[in-house]
Design a protein that fits this description.
Blueprint: E1 3-6, E2 9-15, H1 17-34, E3 41-46, H2 50-59, E4 65-75, E5 78-87, E6 97-105, H3 109-119, E7 125-133, E8 146-150, E9 156-157, E10 173-176
Parallel strand pairs: 3-4, 3-6, 6-7, 7-8
Antiparallel strand pairs: 1-2, 2-10, 4-5, 9-10
Helix pairs in contact: 1-2
Length: 179
C-alpha cells in the first residue's frame, strides 16, 4: 500500500473520500429528520472540524445557523489532557437547540469539559455530531448522537485532522505507520 509523508511521519490510507462523503450524508439525513422545525445552531469546534463542518452544513436542508469555538488539548501526536479554550462562544445559546460538530473524539476529556461548560448557558438541548470516534481510547461516558465512523486507536491525519498543523488538507484519512 502506498504511503504519504506528513512532516517526519509516514501514513497509509485508512478511509477514502467516498466513504467519508457517504458517512457525512448519512449523518445529515438523520439530523435533517430529527431537527425538522427546530432551527438548530451548529457549534463547530476548531481547528479540526472545519472540513467536516463545511461538508455537513452543505448537506443540511433545514433552517439552521453555524458558529465556531476553538478548544485545544493536543501536542504532536498525543493528547496533553490539558484543555485550553482559545476562542469562546459569541452567540446567546439560552433556549437554543445545539449540535456540537467535532472531527474526532478519542479520550473525550476535552469535549466532556466543553459539554459541562455549555450547561451554564441553558441551551434547550445539546447533541453531538462527531465524524470519527476512537472507542478504545474513550475515557468518558457522554453520548455521540450522530457518528460518522468508528476508527481504531491509531493516530490519523486528513479531512481536517492534523499532525502539528499539517495534513488537514488531505481529502482522505490516513493512519500512521511509523512514529
Amino acid at each position: 500500500m502506498a504511503t504519504i509523508k506528513v512532516k517526519d511521519k509516514d501514513f497509509e490510507i485508512s478511509i477514502d473520500a467516498s466513504a467519508i462523503d457517504a458517512a457525512v450524508q448519512k449523518m445529515a439525513v438523520e439530523i435533517n429528520r430529527d431537527y425538522e422545525g427546530r432551527n438548530p445552531l451548529f457549534l463547530a469546534i476548531l481547528n479540526g472540524s472545519f472540513v467536516f463542518a463545511a461538508d455537513l452544513i452543505r448537506k443540511i436542508t433545514i433552517p439552521c445557523q453555524i458558529s465556531f469555538v476553538k478548544l485545544s488539548s493536543y501536542s504532536g501526536t498525543a493528547s496533553t489532557e490539558n484543555i485550553k479554550e482559545l476562542i469562546g462562544l459569541n452567540e446567546d445559546i439560552k433556549g437554543r437547540h445545539l449540535i456540537i460538530v467535532e472531527d474526532i473524539v478519542d479520550t473525550g476529556l476535552t469535549l466532556d469539559k466543553f459539554l459541562q461548560d455549555l450547561k451554564k448557558f441553558e441551551p434547550a438541548s445539546v447533541k453531538l455530531a462527531c465524524f470519527t470516534f476512537k472507542k478504545e481510547a474513550f475515557k468518558k461516558s457522554f453520548r455521540i448522537d450522530y457518528l460518522g465512523i468508528t476508527i481504531p486507536n491509531d493516530f490519523v491525519v486528513g479531512y481536517g485532522l492534523d499532525y502539528d498543523g499539517y495534513g488537514r488538507n488531505l481529502p482522505d484519512i490516513y493512519k500512521i505507520v511509523s512514529s
